[in-house]
Amino acid sequence: MAKLLPMEARTEADLPRGPGWQYEPKWDGFRCLAIRDGDKIGLLSRSGKTLARYFPDMVAALKALKPRRFILDGELAIPVGEILSFDALQLRLHPAASRVNKLAAETPSILIAFDLLQNARGLDLRDRPLNERRRQLEAFFDGLGETPALRLSPVSTSRAEAERWLKRAGGGALDGVVAKRADDPYRSGERAMVKVKSLRTADCVVGGFRYASNSRLVGSLLLGLFNDEGKLDHVGFTSGIPGDKREALTRKVEALKGGPGFTGDAPGGPSRWSTERSTQWEPLKLELVAEVQYDHASGERFRHGTRFLRWRPDKRPHDCTFEQLRQEVRPSRLFPTKKVRTRTRLPAL
Fold it and tell me: pTM, whole model, 2 decimals?
């Protein structure tokens, strides 16, 4: 089989409507093509790089399966407690094999499969329509028996159900919803799917700021939330500040310089991606509350930068707590370890 690249998705604001669409949860993990050819196991990332050395537990799980040939498309994830932990995934990307093996034993990974590109007989399915590949994927799982490391991703043709999934996205398991045409072949390397993420808002304390590079104007505001001990933890930043508002904002925050800033977890120090300049930040008196929009929170931090919406002078800083980010998402309820039948659907969250 020629070199494989995963079929990708383009971002849209809303879920598509009309007949012929299949909806699936977008899981919070590493996209992965799991390939078995006899005793050879491959785990390929979206970019085509191997993940096998970082997930020896998944290599062993795939090698233990009865089918000796297959190609699954899915998401590598690590359940920690009652969430799927993206931070635990990132910890696996470690140069020391001993460290990787220790983490694999402590927090085993799972593969959430949503497509089958080659079946156990070695038949290439990429030219077959998605609804046929899905039937073969379910038949593949029916033949596996009890396989805790492999899970079958739920699917629905109901847009209303997909909207319910979307409302629960962003809190530690679901990253959004993916829509696919049920009659489409597998378009390797193309953005042939649609992904939609749930955008949420949170009220955050501005615990500090950074100047823009080579400037005395604000480049980004550093955001915090109060933890259970009453200390302010750094949770992310917002930097989309219009140019015509930077001078006024700079005056606003410079008037609050000299405060305690983050009294819990503070912004990190230098890394291989940062410069000495980019790690410098100014602590502030804890008076400003900003409402920001975000798409995902992981490990009680915003995964990406946020969008500033408005100031909240009516909000007390100490009322800005982590309760805004914590949602109850239980992967153990989503994935029974026994065989997953054709009509399995995602339970209400």
Answer: 0.74
